[in-house]
Amino acid sequence: MKSLLAIVLILGLGGVATWAQTDGFSVLTTEAARRQAILASPLPVPATELQLADGHSTGLRTWLSDDGRVTIVNFIFTRCATVCLSMGDEFQRLQARILERGLQDCVRLLSVSFDPRDTPRWLAAYEKRMNVDPDIWQIVLARNDDERRRLLDTFGIIVIPAPLGQFEHNAAYHIVTPDGQLTRIIDLEEGDAALHYALAGAGDAGNGGQP
């Protein structure tokens, strides 16, 4: 009888722990919890100083506000031989769809490199390789380690060094409004959904964008 009670107690404690770690069973992974938290309470992005492929610098929040479009953000490194290639291909497709549908005044794309080895020259080469239209899609990097870390922490990006100069990292699309709010995180395979929610955000901002 004592053994049975001990087993029941252990199972009960395990259930309580799982409940606490998954917000009452509503989420099952850290990634899902991150996305649900942002959906429930949008998060302001930091005023990180960014460097563009042409060598110029700009503050992220000021840049978002001055531009006035909803931005779909992903995180990459230009030497990536795995998941970043898929994200680049998907951004190429989204760039084409934005142009085809005349949405370039509502939505833009932003790829942020987290690789400290990247330079404006590497960004420019990446832009050429990806056939980037600079009016729709920009490639940038954080100016220093501290600002890079703040940016990654805010967006919930985990980067782990891997062999051969590569990195393991989580990948998603992030919807950011002109007032600098991270409002939604979307799976890598759901590029169309990212565009849908970006347009919905543009509509909320008064641009009348409809998916």
Please explain how this structure is put together:
- The protein is of the alpha+beta class and 211 residues long.
- It folds into two domains: 2-37, no CATH class; 42-207, Glutaredoxin.
- The chain is 45% helix and 22% strand.
- It has seven helices and ten strands.
- The strands form two sheets. It has an eight-stranded mixed sheet. Strands 7-8 form a two-stranded antiparallel ribbon.
- Strand 7 and strand 8 form a beta hairpin.
- It is globular.
- The protein starts with a helix and ends with a helix.
- Mean pLDDT is 79; it is low at 1-28 and 206-211.
Structure characteristics:
alpha+beta, Glutaredoxin
Quick structural gist:
The chain is an alpha+beta fold. The protein has 7 helices and 10 strands.
Give the topology, please:
Blueprint: H1 2-21, H2 30-40, E1 43-44, E2 49-52, E3 57-59, H3 60-67, E4 70-76, H4 83-100, E5 107-113, H5 120-129, E6 137-142, H6 145-155, E7 159-161, E8 167-169, E9 172-176, E10 181-187, H7 191-207
Parallel strand pairs: 4-5, 5-6
Antiparallel strand pairs: 1-10, 2-3, 2-6, 4-9, 7-8, 9-10
Distance between the termini: 61 Å
Q: Strand order, biggest sheet?
A: 1-10-9-4-5-6-2-3
Beta-strand level of the residues, as a percent range? 15-25%
CATH architecture of the largest domain: 3-Layer(aba) Sandwich
Based on Cα principal axes, name the global outline.
globular
Spans of at least 5 consecutive residues with low confidence: 1-28, 206-211
Total number of helical segments? 7
Q: Helix coverage percent of residues?
A: 40-55%
Task: Give the CATH class of the largest domain.
Answer: Alpha Beta
In CATH, the topology of the largest domain is named Glutaredoxin
Number of domains: 2
Q: For the record, what is the CATH homologous superfamily label of the largest domain?
A: Glutaredoxin
| Average residue pLDDT | 79
Q: Output the helix-strand order.
A: HHEEEHEHEHEHEEEEH
Structural class: alpha+beta
**Rg on CA atoms, Å:** 20 Å
Describe the main β-sheet briefly. Answer: 8 strands, mixed
Q: Give the beta-strand count.
A: 10
